[in-house]
Amino acid sequence: MKKLLFILLIALVATGCKKEKKIERNLWKQGGEWEIKSFEESYTSASNPEYNDSYVINNGGTIQFEKDGTGNTNYSSELAIYLEGLLYEEYINKEFTYHNSEGSIYLIYADYGGIAYNLEWEKDKMVMSFSENQEFQDYDENGNQIIIKTTYSIKFICEKK
Predict the structure, then answer these.
(1) Which of 46, 98, 115, 161 has its CB 3.0 to 4.6 Å from that of 33, i.e. a possible disulfide?
(2) d(Cα 92, Cα 72) in Å, to the nearest integer?
(3) Can you tell me the distance from the alpha carbon of 41 to that of 78, in angstroms, rounded to the nearest whole number?
(4) Would you list the domain boundaries of the chain?
């Protein structure tokens, strides 16, 4: 019984590593260029739906991945201008290095830091997303202070070119 469990554990580890390598190869194979089909940003609040907001940009440019673990972004002018309000300038249309795991991809921009995205991946499609819960203060119509809880998220929906 112990041998069987050990064999199953080895098989699970090997399978997990195998998928990670498969994703990595798919990022850079066939030129490594990914078209940003859409970029989505949203704020959602279950308790205060009047604060819900979203924005979508279609045809957002490209992301290029190289076999050596480097890459660069070439955002459309509309998306680049929009991202200037969200990200550091050093992250817009710049070179990066990347590391991926089965469920995450990390884009690192030289000495400036980087961004960790959740990664949903299919053969020639991927979704890179980031989400965080936020809390801020506002006032209701009577002047009473209220706490607004929202979920902020961004999503890059990409397809292999």
Answers:
(1) 161
(2) 9
(3) 14
(4) 2-160
